[in-house]
Amino acid sequence: MKRVIVYPGSFDPVTYGHLDIIKRALKICDQLIIAVSSNPTKKSLLSLRERILLLKETIKEMKDVRVEEFDGLLVDFLKRKGVRIIIRGLRAVSDFEYEFQMVLANRKLDEKTETIFMMPTEAYFYLSSSLVKELAGLGADISRYVPKFVEEKLKEKISHAKSQKKTF
Ligand code: PNS
């Protein structure tokens, strides 16, 4: 039987930190489903379609991994897929409380669900999509954090948001 794992998130946008977790997850499963939430808790800069396209481009050379969107509860998506294991990246200590809360909430919703955590390489220990957006908004070089096509998309979205006087 194939071991399938779900890697859920907002991916607004995908970063090299996410890619690091994807590569690590592939070492312990036969198939990885990257599940992109269509209703992220935080306001997203990129549309669902854009977040998915950037992820697909990022993993296009990789085998045994696919990108899907999900709406509503993560546990319901897992049930539909017949998957029990969630994988999440764990970075600095600050992630812990949020992740702990999510594990407990998901377990209450469906006790069959298990979450496993993987730590990214140290270079990405403080990297987050929010940081990347903030740096890009201030004109900093983000090439060490995201692929070129993500950088280009972010710049385009940020200059559009600025022209509309929107926050991001
Ligand atoms: O990348 P993020 O924003 O930390 O990912 C959070 C995400 C999308 C995995 C989480 O918010 C989620 O699972 N949302 C779906 C709704 C849900 O199932 N909520 C209950 C568990 S917190």
Summarize the structure.
This protein is of the alpha/beta class and 168 residues long. The protein has six helices and five strands. The chain has a single domain, classed as Rossmann fold, CATH 3.40.50.620.
Topology:
Elements: E1 4-9, H1 16-25, E2 31-37, H2 48-58, E3 65-70, H3 74-81, E4 85-89, H4 95-109, E5 114-118, H5 129-137, H6 148-163
Parallel strand pairs: 1-2, 1-4, 2-3, 4-5
The structure holds 4'-phosphopantetheine.
The site of 4'-phosphopantetheine (PNS) has 11 residues, from strand 1 and helix 4.
List keywords for this structure.
single chain; Rossmann fold; binds 4'-phosphopantetheine; alpha/beta
Query: Which class best fits the helix and strand makeup?
Result: alpha/beta
As laid out across the biggest beta sheet, the strand order is 3-2-1-4-5
Number of helices: 6
Element pattern in H and E = EHEHEHEHEHH
The helix content is: 40-55%
Give the domain tally: 1
Could you describe the largest sheet, including whether it forms a barrel?
A: 5 strands, parallel
Q: What sort of overall outline do the alpha carbons produce when their principal axes are compared?
A: globular
* Annotated CATH topology: Rossmann fold
Strand content: 15-25%
- Poorly predicted residue ranges: none
What is the CA-atom radius of gyration, in angstroms?
Answer: 16 Å
> What assembly state would you assign to the polypeptide chains in this entry?
single chain
Distance between the termini: 43 Å
